[in-house]
Amino acid sequence: MAALRHLRLPSYPNRPVPQFPSYAYASLVQTTLQQELQAWKAQSASSRGPPPAPTVISFTPAPTYTLGRRQTDPLTYDEHERLKSPLLLVAPRDERQKAKAKAGAYYRPAITSAPRGGLTTYHGPGQLVLWPVIDLHSPLHAHLSVRDYACLLEKTTIATLARLWGLKGFTTDNPGVWVSSRQSKTTTTTITSGKKPEERKIAALGVHLRRHVTGLGVAINYSTPVSGPPETNPWARIVPCGLGDRGVTSVCAELGLVEGEEAAVKDDLAAMWCSEFRKRLNFRPDAAQMLGKNTLDLDFLCSLGTGDEQMLVKASLID
Asked: pTM value?
């Protein structure tokens, strides 16, 4: 039996009107799992039962701009209206749909505050968000410091990108995972001899902790638009995380990919990331036996959402 639980909040990008779970709904699911862990930790060691399973939530949210803790000044009216202006999302097409014209739909992005460092960033279609909810001092695995945990997220993401696509990710003084124009497989960028390679962020990282229980995590750009006008490119509306001298990229931009079975690809990406994360978490050999019966109430988690969100939660165990 596996010791890591994977909760998927599916999206449906190929429907006539693409559907995605809201960032607010994913946050409610995360909070519920955090409360489950906190309640267990609050009990005395002699009276509490088996610990809740460590969990990774994966999802692709509806368009959302999140404001970090460094965003101390409120948005001006013009800034607010720029972020909320309609964003055109073009639905990906699979092999059977390539002869058809591209379909698209307009969305008004949500704006919300997030308990992480940094300034403003974007989450939305084309991206895979992975939020582990674990106890850094759990009896199930090796204890982690905050820095250990941030490194775990980065190393897991770097290994996943390398295994799936051969991309060479790396870290810098700024959080997240980056790729270099000299390392990527894309041919769209030319490097002048002697010029420092351009660093582009392919995965963002944000962490929040309460009593050693984790929140937030990693957002990997798979096919998120990273060029073009603000009507279609969400990054053109902001300076991502306040780093004006560095760009944002995606797996598709780096590899020159245009079309594909995006839902299936992101399912593979989520499964690979969870597998790499589990390997690096250093579970005890008997961790699975220590968990006891899985008591996760999927019906309750579904009830936190609205409309189609109530039918979206899927759970699996990572071997």
From this structure: 0.86
